[in-house]
Amino acid sequence: MTDDSKPRTAKDTHYAKLRRAYRDEKAGGTPQFRARQPVAPGEAPSDGLVRLYGLHTVRAAIDNPRRKIQRMMVTRNALERLEIADVSALPFPTEIVEPRDIDKITGSDAVHQGVLIEAKPLKPKSLADLKDTPLVVVLDQVTDPHNVGAVIRSAVAFGAGALVVTARHSPQESGVLAKAASGALEHLDVIEVRNLADALGELHDAGFRTIGLDSEGAEPFEGALSGDRIALVLGAEGKGLRQKTRETVNVLARLDMPGPIRSLNVSNAAAVSLYAARRHLAGQG
To answer: What is the pTM of this model?
Structure first.
């Protein structure tokens, strides 16, 4: 049996198609396969709107009565995955588009999954709006929107009631942050404060034990857990907690790690500490 007479596998057929497409393009014909050309993001939205994208992000936004959506761009495939049968029933204008139409707005690097909305940003709350939650997360000038989004996702997963951030040196609501949160942004109260030390004092007055995560903390994290209200305080990667924050929290605690790497990304540290704090609080009940 010659090589040409061997049975063709699916892989052989795939590469044969690619070779034909390449020959067609070289000959000036229409190629069957063409790589997507990189597209830069378009201009920012007007009127203070934010652009949110991704299936989980948009579905959660649609289901959130506090979210005021102005318009949506969506492919037919994404529309099915969002389980929207009738776009005319939506309370905002919707345009059926091709993926490249969304690329022109978000840039081709954004994983928009075929759907984008323009909406009004959610209004940050104040500490006076803090409900009777037993668990909150406090971020001390964490500026990376990917990290903040990931922290929000973990906070919602483990039942935290609020995220406290500083008015300055914190990322604004954006598509990148919301995509990293994977829909969790719509389920968590974001509380904005001007002075973090004062806010920690208010949390103390409300009965919270504030635990600052620090790789050089004197106490293991598990030993620092006590009481029935916990506020986890995390700093930015690299510089960690500011000195004033370190002096204000009730305790500085470390996550003991037996491996050769002795520190975690802030979003990973948040997830680990949220899990342990939730287990502690469950035992208090």
So the answer is: 0.83
